[in-house]
# Entry
Amino acid sequence: MLLLALNFIAGLAIGDFNTLARTADGALQKLDQLRRDPDVDKAELAAAEATYLAARGELTTPHLRMVAHRLLGTAAALVAVLVSSITITYFIGTSRWCKEVAETYRLPDELAYRSTLLKRKTFPWAMLSILTVILLVGLGAAADPRGANREYSASLVTPHYLGAMLGVVVIGYSFWIQAQRIAANYAIIDEILDNVRRIRAERGLPTENDATA
# Structure
């Protein structure tokens, strides 16, 4: 969440990158046209070069900020996807473990069912978080004037901005849900282990303390 928040702030710090990039690109195109003209007036060519250099100079700092925004965004996206992927992997493994241990020690089916139910309720939130990250990355790429969508990039800056605000909230809430469900599942695992310890003690089987010794 910290990476996502920092990247949102980094995006705001860029400024009107689209306008500056279009101005620089337009100045470069005009300069190229004049350079290809054999009858070009030298004064006009010099003025076009000065205009282009000025536009490129104004773009330097925003461009560096844009690069930082892309890199930080990539890191934030990867970590956010990783977190939700870990949640999915965790529930796949632990729900199976709960089922097998409950069957082995003939514990109430309700314990394994509760873990499975938590898994089913958590998966949609984890997937929502992953899909939200993918959507935000797509909007960011579409709003980049130096990308493949340069012709329509300016019109997607505001959707990217609004999507980023809403996306951070959605991902944050999803993470909170995942954390709550993992804690609840951990409590179920503890309950199963307590039952296992009790049964092993009743049957005179080695306990965790015996194994450690």
Remarks:
- The radius of gyration is 28 Å.
- The chain has one domain: 2-206.
- The CA atoms of residues 206 and 212 lie 10 Å apart.
